[in-house]
Amino acid sequence: MSKKIIVSFMSLSVFVATLAVSGCGPAGNNTAPAPTTGAGTTGTGLKVGLVTDIGGLNDNGFNHLAYVGLTKAEQKLGAAGKVVQSKQATDYVPNLTYFASHGYNLVIAVGFLMHDAVEQVAQQYPNIKFMIIDDVITNRSNVVSAVFQSEQAGYLAGAMAGLIQKGHSLPNLNSQNIVGVVGGQPSPPVDSYIAGFQQGFKREDPTGKVLVTYTDSFTDTALGAQYAQNEMSQGADIIFPVAGGCGLGVISAVQAANKYAIGVDTNQSYLAPKNVIVSATKGVDTSVYDVVQSVKNNTFKSGVDTFGLKQNGVGITAPMQGVPQSIVSQVNQLKQDIIDGKIHISTTVQK
After folding, report:
1. Predicted TM-score of the model (pTM)
2. Cβ within 8 Å of residue 335, ≥6 positions away
3. In CATH, which superfamily holds the domain spanning 3-148+284-309?
4. Distance between CA atoms of residues 130 and 143, nearest Å
5. Where does the UniProt entry say this protein principally localizes (predicted)?
């Protein structure tokens, strides 16, 4: 599939995108498959392979952002990139192995779900460079880990939600001061977002309540909608989904109920412009581009690269129309206080 077709496909509506994600079937074997997607076919000898997790390119989140970073590396650095989308967990090792066995200069694994697979394949191919996103591997000299201080972005989003709830600053808010979170699987990348959101919300609305549930899925949009409906039935009128493609179902359910959501990883306001208040973001695309550039410049270094507010590696988007400027200003001040070290945020979810 050409890049032109991919970009067009990813611009389809969320309903088509979710069908594409949920409709993926099993690969049916453990041999190393050829890449299913080409991000480009030209380059200057620098070959980069990108392996998505089971959420696929249409997750409107970090898989998509990784692809954006790869595309930028093609355009700016002359890299030749290819993408393979994993349909099930057993695809991870063969997909990574394909790129490593074909002499790619850098193999990128998107997501903490590929931790064990990267450990295995990186050990088998010590001369190939690997990058894992949203996870930490420190015992391999050929692996760099990109991690994000998502708790900082979650904190700012939670503070905005708290200020809006406390002041009833948007239409159709009830008087219960309850917000919700729908997580995917409990894990550091998910829980850091949630922990930050809880703390930011409680700072601004100490008497408010944060509901937290986990779907144990990053792909099931219907399940995400079900969990959102359950939280709304308990009084939540702002919900923060941290569940990949599953979270798209949350946004759809919130939109149908004329309530509010907070986007995650990338700017998700286009999914429901009148319902997505703001998005908590992480610079997955930036991290991919930076690592590809380090390989090209022979400055690749294993270990952990951390991206936070100070590095513009996480943040929040401009809020939806109708959010008072006074709230935006308060949140901007909190951002600066975090950068200055005046606010310290835990990554532990409060039960």
Report:
1. 0.83
2. 156, 309, 315, 316
3. Response regulator (3.40.50.2300)
4. 5
5. membrane
Cα(169)–Cα(230) distance, integer angstroms: 24
Neighbours of 285 (CB within 10 A): 20
Contact status, residue 196 vs residue 345, Cβ threshold 8 Å: yes
- Helix H, strand E, coil C: the string for the chain is CCHHHHHHHHCCCHHHHHHHHHCCCCCCCCCCCCCCEECCCCCCCCEEEEECCCCCHHHCCHHHHHHHHHHHHHHHHCCEEEEECCCCHHHHHHHHHHHHHCCCCEEEEECHHHHHHHHHHHHHCCCCEEEEECCCCCCCCCEEEEEECHHHHHHHHHHHHHHHHHHCCCCCCCCCCEEEEEECCCCHHHHHHHHHHHHHHHHHCCCCEEEEEECCCCCCHHHHHHHHHHHHHCCEEEEEEECCCHHHHHHHHHHHCCCEEEEEECCCHHHCCCCEEEEEEECHHHHHHHHHHHHHCCCCCCEEEEECHHHCCEEECCCCCCCCHHHHHHHHHHHHHHHCCCCCCCCCCCC
To which residue do tokens 């941290």 refer?
Answer: 242
> What's domain 151-282+321-339's superfamily in CATH?
Response regulator (3.40.50.2300)
- In angstroms, the CA 312 to CA 269 distance is 20
Q: Looking at this protein, which amino acid is placed at residue 95?
A: N
Average pLDDT of span 137-156: 97
Residue ranges of the chain that CATH labels 3.40.50.2300 = 3-148+284-309, 151-282+321-339
For 187, the token pair is 């894990």
Angle between helices 92-101 and 115-124 (to 10 degrees): 30
Q: Are 193 and 151 in contact (CB under 8 A)?
A: yes
